[in-house]
Specification:
By secondary structure, this protein is α/β, with parallel strands linked by helices. The chain folds into 2 domains: about 140 residues, Rossmann fold (3-Layer(aba) Sandwich); about 160 residues, Dihydrodipicolinate Reductase, domain 2. The protein is built from 10 helices and 15 strands. The strands form 2 sheets. It has a 9-stranded mixed sheet with strand order 14-13-12-11-7-10-9-8-15, covered by helices on one side. It has a 6-stranded parallel sheet with strand order 3-2-1-4-5-6, sandwiched between helices. The relative contact order is 0.15.
């Protein structure tokens, strides 16, 4: 009989149901428990999905001994929870994005990534969205030749959605690391207290494999989906030797090769929900596969996501100092984010 894996959630907010419902597509795993400090959060979720409810993450982990813990909380709470999960020997843990919010938490997580036996990954589930996977497979097949230029953008600010597009974009160019950043930024966005960042950023990136990229976030980005929203815009396009791929989360997907064109759209809300549930399930399964086979480490593992946040910090330094920044030997100062905020807040 195939082993059944047990999962538990820390956090019972808006993203929690998506994690739980994705397990309906998996035959070898189930969610057994959830926790939150307030009963108005945890009890309705536990009742709806027939989970055991706890007011303490430590108690839940000790009582349930889960194989996989999902941290579905605000960014400023995640480090303590990740350290708790690690100290209690949980084998697998996923964390909502972004992985960090500044310099100090990024440094703490760098140490955790090198010392913890827990396998951490960040929940960039759309890397496993069926239409994104179409684009990945087309690029990996060689039919389009070498990727040359990547155009990625998001309607929300760089802390809200920018790391999403960077991770998904990297999945299209062989998960190459960024070597250089040249960026600009405007304003400061305090509307979303959980994701403070410049209101808009634009950066030119160079990857280690020679691919160049334009990466934009915020109100300077183009739009797809409902033009009155910001969060519905996530767009990625790769231009290659012989063609291109395109994916818009609330728009169309397209693969252009010398042999012809494949295309479609996001399928409306029903199609989007179906694909999002499948993407989340695929990510959960990728984590389970990683538990027994280190060669199956998913592309959203902690070290990869820490590299992506390092790119964000290099972008901040480039925008502040108005010069290109190399990630080789990059050591962001502890006050980088506060200095950038002060500088951008002076803009009219």
């Amino acid at each position: 009989m195939e082993r059944q894996y047990r999962a538990a959630l820390i956090g019972c907010g808006g993203r929690a149901p998506a994690h739980i419902e994705a397990y309906q597509l998996l035959e070898n795993a189930e969610v057994v428990a959830c926790c939150a400090p307030t009963p108005t959060r945890r009890d309705p979720l536990a009742e709806r999905y027939r989970l055991r409810a706890y007011d303490s993450a430590e108690t839940m982990i000790r009582e349930e001994s889960p194989d996989l813990v999902h941290i579905v909380t605000w960014p400023d709470t995640r480090i303590d929870l990740m350290q708790l999960v690690s100290s209690m020997g949980v084998p697998l843990c996923t964390v909502e994005k972004p992985v960090a919010s500044g310099v100090s938490d990024w440094r703490i997580l760098q140490e955790l990534a090198t010392t913890s036996a827990t396998k951490f990954a960040i929940c960039h589930q759309f890397r496993w969205q069926p239409d994104v996977m179409r684009c990945q497979e087309a690029l990996q097949s060689g039919a389009l030749g070498k990727p040359l230029f990547l155009d990625i953008s998001a309607g929300m600010n760089i802390a809200g959605q920018g790391t999403h597009t960077l991770n998904y974009g990297r999945s299209l160019v062989g998960d190459a690391c960024v070597t250089d950043v040249f960026a600009s930024a405007k304003g400061w966005d305090d509307v979303d207290p959980g994701h403070p960042a410049p209101a808009a950023t634009e950066a030119f990136l160079t990857f280690e494999n020679g691919v160049r990229a334009l990466w934009t976030s915020g109100d300077i980005s183009p739009r797809c989906g409902d033009p009155s929203t910001t969060w519905q815009h996530v767009r990625m396009a790769v231009y290659t030797e012989y063609g291109r791929t395109l994916y818009e989360e609330f728009g169309k997907w397209e693969i252009v090769t010398p042999a012809g064109i494949e295309h479609g759209d996001y399928g409306g809300w029903d199609g989007w929900r179906k694909n999002n549930k499948q993407a989340q399930a695929n990510f959960h399964q990728a984590m389970i596969d990683w538990l027994s086979d280190d060669t199956k480490r998913p592309g959203t593992h902690l070290a990869a996501s820490l590299h992506e946040w390092e790119v964000v910090l290099a972008l901040y330094q480039s925008a502040l100092e108005r010069r290109p920044v190399s990630l080789s030997g990059f050591a962001p100062p502890a006050d980088l984010v506060s200095r950038l905020k002060a500088n951008l807040s002076k803009q009219v």
